[in-house]
Here is the input.
Amino acid sequence: MRQLHQQCIAALVWAISFAASAAVNDIYPTDFVALPAGSVNVTIYSAHQKIRGPYTDGIRTVAGEASVNQLALRASRIFPAGENQQYAWTPVAVLSYADVNTNTDLDARLAKNISGMGDLRLGSAFWFHIDRANRTYGLVSLLVSFPTADYNTSRTLNIAENRMRYVLSAGWMQPIGGKWLIDISPEVAVYGEDDRYLGTQVRTQDTSYALTSYLRYRQSDVLQFYGGAQINRGGATQVGGVEITGAPNNTRMYLGSLFFTSPKQQWQLRYSRDVQIDNGLRSEGEVSLRYLFSFD
Here is the structure.
């Protein structure tokens, strides 16, 4: 029983590296805008998150707490496609770094502090609808995570994953009258096996699903405000074929603002928090700052 309890905590703490059961692709407003062909887009993310749990069937079973600091760098370039360049596509590369600190209640077979690089993510997005005049865009994307970062098989908490991960998502941005716009993004994530979990065990995860949406208000050409929500389903975890954690089934809310310091530079400040969760670790609050710039 004690061994199972430790494995449960370990599997839950493993979810810390996924920002406490959030969608694998962290969507922000304006992510679906297709820049002019030839543009290079560079985005820098910084986030601080507080996590509590784990929860089982909506009840907190362990007084665990953790803080996570994350940095990420994403780069892409827009290429035209189709006749009259009515479509566009972009290759995408993402590198990340995380620092995690846990309290003693989550100190079962894991280090209390761990930091390091995350796995390399590569992918591509294709815009099947571009209407710049009316600010309407639609795209599909595929992002693949490769097990490139350092992975310690004797430790339950790692920044790296030691597995492949495939994330298929779509996005639609649409004005809904006046100065209001809506962004909607469904996501499906499929996970490979970690066959070196704690040395010899095999850890698997069910397919997970997410739906993210934002409602934005364009106060001016340089300032916007938004609120949003994200629903996560699926993603239960197994170790050695035995289910250790059920699906998180969590709901997350967002509030934020974005500011253009120039037509090619954008800042976003966002706060998010889980308002409901069934299983796993709950985000008690995350503050993120994102800086985006583009050049020809």
